Amino acid sequence: MAEQFELVLFYSVLGIYLGAWLTHLQGWRRNSNTWTRAANRVLWTGFLLHFLLLFLRTGRAGHVPLLTAFEFVNSFAFLVILVFLLFARREHNRMLGVFLLPVGLGLMLYAAFMSKRIEPEIPIFSSLLLKFHVLTTLIGYAAWAITFAASVSYLYLEGKQKTNPRMFDLMAYRGAFYAFCFLTLGIISGALWADRVFGQLWFWDPKETWSFITWLIFLAYLHARYTLDWRGRRAAVLAIIGFAAVLFTYVGVDFLLPQIHGMQG
Amino acid sequence: MAGKLTIKRMLGFCFHFLASLKTAIPLLVLLTLATVVGSLFPQPELFKSWLYLGLLGALGVSLLFVTILHIPSLRQRRGRNAMIGVVATHAGILLLIAGAIYGGMHSFRYSVYAIEQEMTVVPGLPFVIRLDKLEVEEYPANSFIYVTPKSVPKKKQQSHITLFKDGEPWASIVTSPGRPAKAGNIHILPSLSEVGWYFELIITDPLGREKTIPVKPWAPPVIKAGDQRLMAHNLLGEDHVSVKLFTIRDKQVKPLGILHEGSPLKMGDYSIRLGASKRYTGLMIYNRPQTPVLVAGCFLMLAGLIWHFYHRHKDKIKPGTRYG
Fold this sequence. Notes:
The complex is a heterodimer. Chain A is mostly helical.
């Protein structure tokens, strides 16, 4: 019964997010604040239901929902939406939603095809340090999704009259800064956890290696802005490359490279 | 007209060469590319090679010099708070690199196997290890979707160990994967995957003579029984020992059968049965002399980032200056 309810809730959230995106799209096309406000309300509804879904899942599984592939992707989508809502509240713009919500929606769709079964938590996965590692890494990637969406928005608006894309440029930088901080925390906590479990801080496993590559790209982005004064188009292109690295680390490595890193299920 | 080449001038040139972003950024790009290549075309030794470590070291030194050179202008352009954050973060990264290099030079690491109720001597360690008891509990079948319980870590895997010094018990420790035990400054951690049964095979020849062969699964011997050559390994994920036997002929390995306790296997005129069996576990024994440096590096880097986080956006950027 609880399982069925969770399933209904999951697809409802997916539908609501889709509705919020379409409403955002309409707000952007019509240049209407009314539509954008409505879209954000719809999104908040979906987000609260998403929170309820994760809460119920935690209660039913008896562990934080970061263990199986489904839980991991579902939580990632939740964080992407959360980061968007935090940024959107602050930045008041409608365009970010148009480019960012598809990332959250894509993750939810990806999760829809995964097994939703609950699995027992292996003792080594019950460590708080591991949960901290997963959570901080996901927040870092979600923050980079903001950088990506803001950079795409910048490139779209660049050169168009009557619009000033500078706000998106700054927003991309802010997202990148948070992303770098959280990814750094994630990598350090992951190394500490690996040391406790495997007696080794670093393995050069493909997932680790690609996290490191992503971290280097984030580092290059921040330094390029900070010291070389890269902004606008060049910074936006680097941000998009960074997001491609995030996607490859997150999805591509699982399919293309043999590895020991990963979720339990 | 070129001046005289002195050590001072050469050091100055090296400093300014490495302190330039025109050096640091290409080094960063090179390091990223080398890491991408190493990941896509796995070369086990690449990440330990002098080329890669040299690149990492050069980037570290370049980072240090860039930071030193840019401190005054950083303070002038972005304010004291931004400067403190940047300097602390970079100092932290440098400490991490230094810690990794120091650890590589001064740490040790042994991988050994310990059998229940037997002594394990590791040359160089100040103590001898005895695995008193190994408690193992498996997950029930059908617990997982994509994997079998045999291929995942155990539900419980606890090693009770006594350490002996000069023939006397010195310390008793309990350790399991994810919970390393410490003896002095030495860590002892059981392996997640190297756990199973050590066993003896008793081979009876046609004349009724018995021969006992100990089998350590991590180094299985080739066993001769008449004109047959055999190998054996134990099946994992079992509460009791079961052994799979193979014949080797003309470099071809063929399964012969599975041996259970109390049920011998016939092979022509020979008979094979199981003798004594005990659990064994792999143990990793290592030290971490670099820990204080790494902890200091992490702390400094994170403190720098947090400082930056709190102060960066509060710094007022003067009109006309760069932002970002």
